[in-house]
Amino acid sequence: MKVQPPEAVTPFVRHHPSGDERFAVLDKTLEQYDYHPDSLIQVLHMAQSLFGYLSADVLRYVASSLKIPIAQVYGVVSFYHLFTMLPRGKHQIMICRGTACHVRGAPVILERLEEQLGIKEGETTKDNLFSLYSARCIGACSLAPAIAVDEDVYGKLTPDKIPKLCQKELKKYV
């Protein structure tokens, strides 16, 4: 009797103990990259796309799957600004901190946004609709000071315009 190697019988498929189907999709990505450690960033992109953020559980799962230290995974996640380990709101509000925006009042615009939204920079509203972040530059220098809500840019802002922006313009994202 000829015995087949295990991989010929059934392919290795990891299953997360939670039963969360998103891990099955993540497994397909890991498989696509042959579980190679060099695919860490691509796998993290997929994981964040699936889960909305990178929880400790997801980081452990990725580290285990790629057979790399959790410290290495954490190092990559904490280094790159696009990765987040905290849940983000459905919509991202990004305030520009570039030179033009800064000298034209971005710090006060940020204060007003924090007051109106009831959150600080880096936090998410209680209804999980909005997260508030800053960026070095959003590329709208001629509109300084400016913010971006998802892909929409709002410029030439003043502190007095922020309440109206929050009460009127942000309603279209709800």
CATH topology of the largest domain: Glutaredoxin
Low-pLDDT windows of residues: 6-13
Superfamily at the CATH H level of the largest domain?
A: Glutaredoxin
Question: What is the CA–CA distance across the termini?
Answer: 65 Å
Question: How much of the polypeptide forms β-strand, as a percent range?
Answer: 5-15%
Summarize the structure.
This protein is of the alpha+beta class. It has helices spanning 6-9, 21-32, 40-51, 56-66, 70-79, 99-103, 106-117, 162-167, and strands at residues 91-96, 130-135, 147-149, 152-154. The model is unreliable at 6-13 (pLDDT under 50).
Question: How would you portray this structure in words?
Answer:
The protein is α+β, with helices and mostly antiparallel strands and 174 residues long. The chain folds into two domains: 14-79; 91-173, 3-Layer(aba) Sandwich (Glutaredoxin). Helix content is 41%, strand content 10%. The protein is built from eight helices and four strands; from the N terminus they run αααααβααβββα. It has helices spanning 6-9, 21-32, 40-51, 56-66, 70-79, 99-103, 106-117, 162-167, and strands spanning 91-96, 130-135, 147-149, 152-154. It has a four-stranded mixed beta sheet, with helices on one face. The longest helix has 12 residues, at 21-32. It is elongated and about 50 Å long.
